[in-house]
């Protein structure tokens, strides 16, 4: 009988990218000062997955999602640090987050979430405009690629998800 080689599981996780994500990871991005400000301005060079907006914030599908339903919420005002958020901006982000969580719980039976900001240069974020992530977590997320290839594939197209979120958001109270 062949002995099990545990070193194969110690390898770093591999990621499978869409062609567009690979280009993004290599630095091919729209020629704008800030991607999120480009969304706010509706710049035609910037992919826009806006679901809804308030006076001070925008709720958007994440263009490169970790899981189905991954959203970001950000202030329209270009700010870099959490401390710069006004009380009104923070409240609108909170209200959008609460609504998104309620929708995901009710319609998709999501029972876990990761919420968070990447704050500062060394946080791992690639956009220097503060934004909060809402990542739904599902039971048994690990599929055969996670287990065998230590890789993840996200199973939906972001623009289709945007259309679904726009429909749901406006109907959900």
Write up what this structure looks like.
- The chain has a 5-stranded antiparallel sheet with strand order 1-2-3-5-4, sandwiched between helices.
- It has 5 helices and 5 strands.
- With 173 residues, the chain is α+β, with helices and mostly antiparallel strands.
- It has a single domain (34-171), classed as HIT-like (HIT family, subunit A), CATH 3.30.428.10.
- The chain has helices spanning 19-25, 35-41, 87-108, 144-149, 158-171; strands at 50-53, 57-61, 71-75, 112-117, 132-137.
- The termini are far apart.
Summarize the structure.
With 173 residues, the protein is an alpha+beta fold. It has 5 helices and 5 strands.
Residues in helices, as a percent range: 25-40%
Distance between the termini: 60 Å
Number of helices: 5
List the domain count as a whole number: 1
Average pLDDT, rounded to a whole number, is 82
Write out the CATH superfamily name: HIT-like
Largest sheet: 5 strands, antiparallel
The CATH topology: HIT family, subunit A
Gyration radius, to the nearest Å?
18 Å
Low-confidence regions = none
Order of helices and strands: HHEEEHEEHH
Strand content: 15-25%
Spatial strand order of the main sheet = 1-2-3-5-4
CATH uppermost class: Alpha Beta
Any guess at the CATH architecture?
2-Layer Sandwich
Helix and strand arrangement:
Blueprint: H1 19-25, H2 35-41, E1 50-53, E2 57-61, E3 71-75, H3 87-108, E4 112-117, E5 132-137, H4 144-149, H5 158-171
Antiparallel strand pairs: 1-2, 2-3, 3-5, 4-5
């Amino acid at each position: 009988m062949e002995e099990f080689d545990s070193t194969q599981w110690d390898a770093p996780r591999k990621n499978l990218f869409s062609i567009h994500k690979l280009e993004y990871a290599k630095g091919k991005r729209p020629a704008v000062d800030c991607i999120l400000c480009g969304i706010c301005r509706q710049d035609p060079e910037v992919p826009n997955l806006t679901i809804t907006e308030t006076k001070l914030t925008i709720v958007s599908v994440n263009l490169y999602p970790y899981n189905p339903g991954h959203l970001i919420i950000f202030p329209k005002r270009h700010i870099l640090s959490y401390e710069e958020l006004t009380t009104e901006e923070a409240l609108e982000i909170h209200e959008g987050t609460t609504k998104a969580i309620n929708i995901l719980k009710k319609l998709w039976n999501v029972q876990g979430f990761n919420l968070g900001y990447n704050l500062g240069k060394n946080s791992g974020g690639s956009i220097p405009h503060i934004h909060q992530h809402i990542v739904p977590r599902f039971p048994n997320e690990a599929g055969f690629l996670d287990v065998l290839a230590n890789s993840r594939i996200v199973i939906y197209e972001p623009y289709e998800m945007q259309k679904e979120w726009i429909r749901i958001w406006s109907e959900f109270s």
